[in-house]
Amino acid sequence: MTQTAPDLFGYKQHWAQRFGIAPELPMSRTEMDQLGWDSCDIILVTGDAYVDHPSFGMAVIGRTLEAQGFRVGIISQPDWQSATDFRALGQPNLFFGVTGGNMDSMVNRYTSDKKIRSNDAYTPDGEGGKRPDRAVNVYSHRCREAYKNVAVVIGGIEASLRRMAHYDYWSDKVRKSVLMDSKADLLVYGNAERQIVEIAHRLAQGETVAELKGIRGTVHFVKQIPADWTEKVSTSIDQPGTINPPVNPYQEEPDCDKKPTLSGTDKVIEFTRHIPNKQRSQTVIRLPDYEAVKDDPILYAHASRVMHGETNPGNARPLIQRHGSRQIWINPPPIPLTTKEMDGVFDRPYSRLPHTQYGSANIPAFEMIQHSVNIMRGCFGGCTFCSITEHEGRIIQSRSEDSIIKEVEAIRDTSPNFTGHISDLGGPTANMYRLACKDKKIEASCRLPSCVFPGICPNLDTNHSSLIKLYRRARALPGIKKIFIASGLRYDLAVESPEYVKELVQHHVGGYLKIAPEHTESGPLSKMMKPGMGTYDRFKQMFDKYSKEAGKEQYLIPYFIAAHPGTKDTDMLNLALWLKRNDFRADQVQAFLPSPMSIATAMYHSGKNTLKKVSRKADDMPIPKSIKQRRIHKAFLRYHDPKNWPMLREALNKMGRSDLIGNGKKHLIPSFQPKGTEPASFGKGKKFKTKYTTVIKNSKRKSKVKTKNSR
């Protein structure tokens, strides 16, 4: 059944639209006075510096609400030690909207080994320590302290990934839904335009926040299940039985005449489809209680699998989960925005600059993206370690070509330091623009977690012609010297369109192109849901061919992950040997960080492969958890660093691969230790970075390439 939603810009504007458009959303009472405002209808609280640019979530939400006629103020990076800063703009008429910022506050503040970062890219001059741990919780409490009776709505990536009971890497335990811990009234997950606009209009019309039930993309409290709803316990979907690896991990299967025999408390997932459509639309799935999953990793893995099976807006059912004496109701994901609505969101009158109160301060994240253009949202790749699908969804939402070109022209004509170079024309992925399922009915009923793993789905349209046309039109604009593509490229899709690869390589690469095979070995790759290296080799051949045709010397920079669930020491050794054979040297390495709610995090916590049916009797999978093993995995990626050689010699001897220690070309590391090099320590005090690997082609170019944090 096709799901529809009201036109995002079809609501009657709130009366305050008479005040017009603000040059930038106010952050002080003085600015409010200049605009003629006596109060704000909505106040947005964020852990980031306020940059009025469509790559910053609070700017997008603020400008979208402004278009609805509401007066929106911003409280940016407040002092959380008291409620004083939260009273700076007065009491909002409708609600506080709270977010930790563009990044999860814990990922923003800590490396994968839980060491505090010294800087923050979303803060003026990169200063660290300007936001608290679990910023959504802290900010929500302070909003409540400032104005007790004002509604508090939480959202953004931090709230989105913590909408249900979730494993928290930093405390090494399962925590409650952030809606519980923050004591907020309502949680908005995913890209929030639809939800937040409906919330604002309904509150403005006199409804209370407690009456806002059933809005897609929101989580709220319920006392009991409504009388006209049917409850389905998740363990009736996740049926106990024998372990038979499914062909499609989340595809629903018809019931069999023979039901599996119950086996104690074993729980495996076997989705069933025999629910009449009418009944299905009024069915809520009960997940195991928080108190159950917090002490039982297998039940946690079960809940994770069921949740990931209910993420398609076309067929998702609500979920309910008890936390002590209270229950949270998780509504299905929001309906994706249409192209017209996406244009409306991105065509708002953004200044595209940091707020003037920051003066000449440098905001690193802004410097990186100020001349980039977001052309789409979502990702159907389904990589298990990534949070894009859980947040933005797998349905691609694309802007029109005219809207994108209009933004490129605006950058050219208004940016004070534009030099003719667009730094990126992309989004969560570089090349999923306008790609979708060929059949809307299939798309609405599909439960596959990925459209490209283990291979590209035959129902997926991989035609890159719209993107090629966009690239060519954009680079032909007067005043545009070069358009780079810096977003993550799905090279397994790109190879389906040689014309696209040629366009990309010959016109949009600046010497280096970063891609992410993540690993070379099938064990970890299958747990990541990433393609094998054969696809990488195909893409590299095309890349080299088109570079040569254009007379350009260009290089691929592959990224790799250390310590991902499913990775053995031998896998990392084989990856190191591949790097050496191909004369690559890793500069910076990304170590797996278990982000809340991801599939790989469920693997990390449970020790089981959650892409297959989960039971207590299922084989354990390798999980590199100890600091020593994680450091060894990193050391294999940096086999060329003399500081790692003592550690690697010890590891290779234990693995029975002392044949790789020596001073010849066939050896991975030498048998000698250069003077002045300090051996790497296994001590707990030693920490390592959590950045994507940057690799340098050693034979020709030796300059290092700096990379930004990702995921």
How is this structure best described in words?
By secondary structure, this protein is an alpha/beta fold. Among the domains are: 15-217, 3-Layer(aba) Sandwich (Rossmann fold), CATH 3.40.50.280; 228-318, no CATH class. The chain is built from 24 helices and 23 strands. Strands 2-1-3-4-7-8-12-11-10-9 form a ten-stranded mixed sheet, with helices on both faces. α10 runs antiparallel to α22 (599-606) and α21 packs parallel to α23. It is globular. The protein starts with 28 loop residues before the first helix and ends in a 14-residue tail after the last strand. Mean pLDDT is 90; it is low at 240-276 and 682-711.
In short:
This protein is α/β, with parallel strands linked by helices and 711 residues long. Helix content is 29%, strand content 12%.
Primary descriptors:
711 residues, Rossmann fold, disordered C terminus, 10-stranded mixed sheet, alpha/beta, single chain
Helices and strands in order:
Elements: H1 29-35, E1 42-46, H2 57-67, E2 72-76, E3 95-99, H3 105-109, H4 135-146, E4 151-154, H5 156-160, E5 166-168, E6 173-175, H6 178-182, E7 186-188, H7 193-204, E8 218-222, E9 230-233, H8 277-280, E10 283-286, H9 290-293, H10 297-308, E11 319-323, E12 326-330, H11 339-346, H12 364-369, E13 372-374, E14 376-377, H13 388-392, E15 397-398, H14 401-414, E16 421-422, E17 424-426, H15 440-445, H16 465-475, E18 482-483, H17 491-494, H18 498-507, E19 512-518, H19 522-528, H20 533-549, E20 555-562, H21 569-581, E21 584-586, E22 590-591, H22 599-606, H23 627-637, H24 645-654, E23 695-697
